Amino acid sequence: MRRLPPGDPLLHIRGWDAPEPVRLYWPATSTRKGPVPLIVFSHGLGGSRKGYSYLGEGWLARGTANVPIQHAGSDETLWQGSPLLLLDRLSGAADEREAIERTRDVSFGLDRLLRRDSPVHAAIDRKRIVAAGHSFGANTTLILTGAQVIRDGKPLSFRDPRFTASIVISASPFYGETDLAAVLAAVDVPTLHFTTTEDTIRIPGRYSPAQDRIDAYAAIPTPRKALVVFQGGPHNVFTKRSLRNGWPLNPLVKRATAEVGLTFLDLAHKSDPAPLEDWSETWKPILAAAPTPFQVDPRRWARKRRI
C-alpha cells in the first residue's frame, strides 16, 4: 500500500500507513445520537483531501462523519513539475491501474477506521457507510460499489461490500470501455448522481460532455437511484474553488450539494422520501432536473412515522 500524504487532522487515526495523522470530520458528542454514519470521499484527478472541505463541514454539521482520502499518484502533485510533461502525467494518472489503486486507498482507509485500535471504530454505524467522490473520484466510488472494468474479456471487480450507498458527483467516462451498461451492471446500492447543464470535462487528452454523466446514471440498473442536474456551472463547480464569475450560482450549488447528499441518505437508509422532496422544492430555481425519490416500502415508512 502506498503511503498517504500529510494531513492537518481533526482526529489522529493511529495505525494509518503514514507518519502523519489524517483528516477526519467527526461529530461532537453533543450532536451524536446513536451510531454515526460515515462517508468516505475520493477527490477528482489532480485534487486533494482539502479540495471539498465545504462537503466535509456541511456533512459534519448535520452529524455525519466523513473522511476525504487523498490519492498519491493522481492528486494535486500532477500540476507540479514541467508543463511540457503535464499531458504524460495526466494520462498516466487516469488509467485503470490508478483507478484500481484508488479503490485500494479507500478500502484501506476504511479498514483503519474500523479496526479495534481506532478511537472511533465502535461508534461507526456499519449499516450506513457511504462511498462518495467527484469526477475521477466518482469513478472510484462506482468501482467500489460494483462497477467492473472489462480487460481481455474478463471483468475486474474491486467492490467493497461495506458500502451501502454511493454519492456520484460528475463521474468521468470509463475510458476504453465500449459497453457502459456492462461496466455498471453490478452496481446495486442506492446511488445519487450529480451533473450540471455545462458539466464539460476539458483537460489535455480528455474531453467529455455533460451527456456522459447522464449516460452513467441511465446505465445503472437499480431503480434505487436519483439524479440532480443543476442549471449551469462548470465541471469544477463541485470543488471548493470560488471560480471567476461564479457568483451567485457557485456558493448555491455547493450548499445544495452538501444538503442533498444527506437527504438522499435519509431515503436510502431510513426509507424517508420527505427530506429529498423538500430539498427539490427549495432548490427548484437552480435545478434543470430535480431528483425523484425511488419507491420505498410504504409499510416501513409508516412504521417510522409512528415512532
From TrEMBL:
Domain of life: Bacteria
GO MF annotation terms: 1-alkyl-2-acetylglycerophosphocholine esterase activity
UniProt xrefs under Pfam families: PAF-AH_p_II (PF03403)
GO terms classed as biological process: lipid catabolic process
SUPFAM superfamilies in UniProt: alpha/beta-Hydrolases (SSF53474)
Keywords (A to Z) from UniProt: Hydrolase, Lipid degradation, Lipid metabolism
Protein name: Acetylhydrolase
